[in-house]
Design brief:
The chain is an all-beta fold and 435 residues long. The chain is built from one helix and 33 strands. Strands 14-15-16-17-21 form a five-stranded mixed β-sheet, with no helix packed on it. It is globular and about 55 Å long.
């Protein structure tokens, strides 16, 4: 009896085993998934809402979470500034805010606040498309700030920073000549940048060469950490190629390419790479196939480095959303209307199911996978919940009361039993109704 009481007490003290932070754009495992359980299926703008707060302006950035702190990057359209915000996950109370930078956008299709923040529980890094990189402690005290631009991009640049193993990484894949007078110096060639997150000191900067031309040199992807057979890597996609880099030096370990053999000059890349245990998925732009690359390679990988591509199943394609990896499979969201979501085996490319009942609006936010479900949000703010097992649509929950020209691109966050939903006008925290 005493041993049984000790076991019961230990279970009660441990609390929910599946509760996880959401510290980076693609979550705790860098693949759009989490082990969170008991998440909601149906809610509204009022039902099952723990709290909601007004946003000062639109943004494509996904919130990140550490403990009870929710960090949000946003525009402030009235002040024409870029904000760093921190809210309490339990109540929605504003803990701190800062006008981190000035300006809103360079073009009408996006905002400087599109990159998502990143945190490691010690600091939180905010990056903006105007080049400003600002690091705070969790209480909002600015630690350092620097501008890493200008950038040779035709559109507003976006990439989310990566905090991993005590280093801060940022990739800048851009044109090799000025665009409308922006960029084009040696320092602004395509490169992978590594900084000390505590001080902002540059640890290394490695140029990343490319055979791509014009806009195809531009990438809006983010670096992704990956480990296979004891080797740690940073995955980088863009410039018509997928590469793996040594996290300590930035040296290129291997390269596969290309999805663009004719060197089209308008194939900018948006989806970031995603990996299973031994397969790395990269998406060609403009409704072209996805490609599965075998992990563990070295040097230049030819076609023998590929496991498969989706040439024969052209519906498996993604021009913008980054796929998720969950429950042993990839989940690829095709934004082309009507949008579709496919469950794909990593080693074979076999499509287990495809669902097309995702509403009339397009999807550019990346899918989130948790609790046996996929959560998708479209341009209009409608959140579709799909069962991972068979692709059945379980519910559609409209969340944006103010339809505007500003489309919604922020991904859903699943953390500590809650969903965080960022529309253009509000941030919602929802959870399953208490039984």
């Amino acid at each position: 009896m005493p041993s049984r009481l000790v076991l019961i007490a230990a279970i009660l003290l441990a609390g929910p085993a599946a509760a996880e932070n959401w510290p980076q754009w693609r979550g705790p495992h860098f693949n759009g998934s989490t082990t969170e359980q008991d998440l909601p299926v149906e809610w509204s703008q009022t039902d099952n809402v723990v709290w909601s707060v007004d946003m000062p302006g639109p943004s494509a950035a996904t919130p990140v979470v550490w403990g009870h702190r929710v960090f949000v990057s946003s525009t402030d359209t009235e002040k024409e500034t870029l904000k760093a915000l921190c809210y309490d996950l339990r109540s929605g109370r504003l803990i701190w805010q800062d006008d981190a930078s000035k300006g809103l956008f360079k073009d009408v299709r996006s905002y400087y606040s599109a990159p998502s923040p990143a945190t490691d529980g010690n600091i939180v890094a905010f990056f903006y498309g105007n080049g400003d990189l600002i690091v705070y402690d969790l209480d909002g005290k600015q630690q350092w700030k620097k501008n890493v631009g200008p950038f040779a991009f035709g559109w507003t640049f976006s990439t989310s920073p990566l905090l991993h193993d005590g280093k801060l990484y940022l990739q800048i894949l851009q044109r090799n000549e000025p665009v409308e007078g922006r960029g084009g110096t040696y320092e602004n060639k395509s490169h992978l940048l590594c900084l000390d997150p505590g001080t902002g000191k540059e640890l290394w900067r490695n140029e990343r060469p490319s055979k791509a031309v014009r806009e195809s040199l531009e990438a809006f992807t983010s670096p992704v950490p990956f480990s296979h057979a004891g080797r740690n890597e940073i995955l980088v996609a863009g410039g018509d190629a997928l590469t793996g880099h040594d996290p300590e030096s930035g040296d290129e370990l291997w390269r596969w390419g290309t999805w663009n053999p004719s060197r089209e000059g308008h194939w900018r890349l948006v989806p970031s790479p995603v990996a299973s245990d031994d397969t790395i998925l990269v998406c060609a732009p403009k409704d072209h196939p996805v490609y599965a690359v075998k992990a563990g390679g070295s040097g230049w990988l030819g076609d023998e480095g590929l496991l498969w591509s989706s040439h024969r199943t052209r519906e498996v394609s993604s021009d913008v959303p980054t796929p998720a990896f969950y429950d042993g499979d990839f989940f690829v969201l095709n934004k082309k209307r009507p949008s579709s979501l496919s469950r794909v085996e990593p080693r074979t490319g076999k499509v287990k199911w495809t669902t097309r009942q995702l509403g009339r609006a397009e999807h550019e936010a990346s899918p989130t996978a948790a609790d046996g479900k996929l959560y998708l949000i479209n341009f209009d703010g409608d959140v579709t919940v799909i069962r991972a097992e068979d692709g059945q649509v379980l519910a559609t929950n409209p969340m944006e009361p103010n339809k505007t020209k500003d489309i919604i691109r922020s991904s859903i966050v699943a953390t500590q039993g809650h969903l965080l939903i960022r529309t253009n006008s509000k941030l919602y925290c929802v959870r399953k109704e208490e039984q």
